[in-house]
Amino acid sequence: MKILDTLKGRFEQALDGLIDNPAAYSARIAQARDPRFGDYQANIAMPLAKTLGKNPVDIANSIVQRLQIDDLCESVDVAGPGFINLKLRSQFLASSLSQAAGNDRLGVSAVRNPQTYVVDYSAPNVAKPMHVGHIRSTVIGDSLCKILRFLGHRVISDNHLGDWGTQFGMVIYGYKHFVDRSAYERAPVAELSRLYRLVQQIIGYQAAVSQIDKTREQLRLAIRRMQELIAKADAGDKKAAKEVKAADRNVAAVRESLEEIERKIANIEGDSSLHAAAHGHPVLDQRAQLETAKLHSGDPENLALWNQFLPWCIEEIETVYRRLGIKFDLQLGESFYHPMLGDLVQRLLSSGLAQQSEGATCIFLEGYDAPMIIRKQDGAFLYATSDLATIEYRLKQYSPDVILYVVDHRQSEHFAKLFAAAAALGYHHVTLKHVSFGTVLGPDGKPFKTRSGTVIGLEYLLDEAVQRAYQVVCHPERLQKANLRMTNEEQHAVAEAVGLGAIKYADLCHNRTSDYEFDIEQMVQLDGNTSAYIQYSFARASSILRNSGVDLGSPNVDSLSMELVNTAERDLALYLLQFEDVLHQCLEDYLPSVLVAYLYGIAKQYAVFFDQCPVLKADNEHLMLSRLRICDATCKTLQKGLELLGIATVPRM
Ligand code: ARG
């Protein structure tokens, strides 16, 4: 049921003949913000008044006169400076909800002109540990695929793995020089991760050693500058007084980077074997880069190591995907495109789209100072080169209308340039969209990390969330109070659904563009804007349906007219009927958070209904059956909605 679309359609008919572009104005109908203004409100007359040079109230009245909407609305009022307030007929809501609830798509129709989408998401750089940052892309991308598919679009999900990058040079170098054989045989990925971190740590140390003197000097200057400003300010210099704060912040920032540098140095120098390794392998960053370059140019030894490592790395991330229920149609990593890059660069050069500049091959883009480099002086290809090849490949194989890139906002510049380059290459018939997202923060407001400074591994976090969910939801006292007798097995299934749901939900409920604080304690709670709260509403409504013993599918119940007597049930019905509109809104800017807010709204409205409208103890049987069907519609909408977010439901909790 597309209520909003239906209303818009009626307004367009009424506006037809009055103005040239009714659709531009019908877009100004929205849900009323306050129930006193009805269910929907059209803010059309005021903007039209300017165009037509007439009084807005008169315009509103003449629109209302032309409007044929009696079958849907019980009242249509002109209010204030010219708003048109619409109140829907309860009868219309009741019959629409009856229809929706009896339909396995909840009355949501497939779009009339389906599009083909390639959705590029998750895409971790393998051979280094997967961390909480990766979950955002995975969860947002998965949900967008599900919503697109449900609305009838064709979707190809592609996990564009980072399986060819510099991290392999680091791991290969580490393997050649530092491997612990027996550890590798026991747990290859753990050992590869250790090697990656070790090499990274030594590279960090060597950089720190080369920066420390300069940073100390910077700090000295920053402090001196601040002292000078303070002295001037004390002497009455207003301009200086204004600058003190910024200077102080600058001192704090430089001090913080100095401390970071000192920490990196102390960590290595405090450990004699690390210290020896760091000194035995100077300029390690260059050595690792050399290993990457050898891999890329087909060196047999490095290629063999890569072939040996990759399946382990993939198995590792697949464990996480299996647990989260994530599946991809394709998993074509960067390595897949490598063989195409030489030819691509040649073609771009010979067609004149790319040029040699200072030894590198570049595409010059309008609006950008720096060109996009597609081949470095030393012959190496770049991330951008393989992304260009990926676009070509996808166009050839799937002819998509849209390619979505669900990637961290820090890559905005990369994608802006990539899209500009794609346009320059003549790929106009596809819409390329960077669906960017913010950072996952720790309680300190900085990117989420453990105390020791390493990013927390994802699997550990999933376990932790499930564990905490278990403590909250399967607490013996709670189960006893709710009279829920569950086997151990059922308890674990509930904890798994709630814990994993919590992680996904916490990620999806924030507008994707903002950063959010990862707070595992809060996210598994049963109250508030959490998945557990919604899963619980579902379970509660399900249990009423079970306890009633009524078969809602039986023809005499199914054909029964619904009644919306109480405001609480009417409001709930109106909410439930917006499902289709909400799904379309989600896709306007690819925001699963719109669906989350909607489901949370239903759960809250259901709580009001539950409080005010007795179901099994309703005044008469007709009302009971009607309310059971409202519970049923609620269950189905919550379940479908959560499913589109990748979150499971359990029949009781
Ligand atoms: N592997 C990249 C990273 O972790 C993300 C890849 C996104 N997709 C793409 N086609 N560039 O930063």
CATH superfamily of the largest domain: Isoleucyl-tRNA Synthetase, Domain 1
Assign the CATH topology of the largest domain: Isoleucyl-tRNA Synthetase, Domain 1
Nearest-integer average pLDDT: 93
- The strands making up the biggest β-sheet line up spatially as 1-2-4-3
Any idea what the CATH architecture of the largest domain is? Orthogonal Bundle
Give the helix level as a range of percent.
55-70%
Structural class: alpha/beta
Residue fraction in strands: 5-15%
Q: How many E strands?
A: 13
Question: In one word, what is the shape?
Answer: globular
Radius of gyration of CA atoms, rounded to a whole number: 30 Å
Question: CATH class of the largest domain, please?
Answer: Mainly Alpha
Distance between the termini: 31 Å
Count of DSSP H/I helices: 26
Which ligands does the model contain, each kind named once?
arginine
**Low-confidence spans: pLDDT under 50, at least 5 residues?**
none
Number of structurally distinct domains = 4
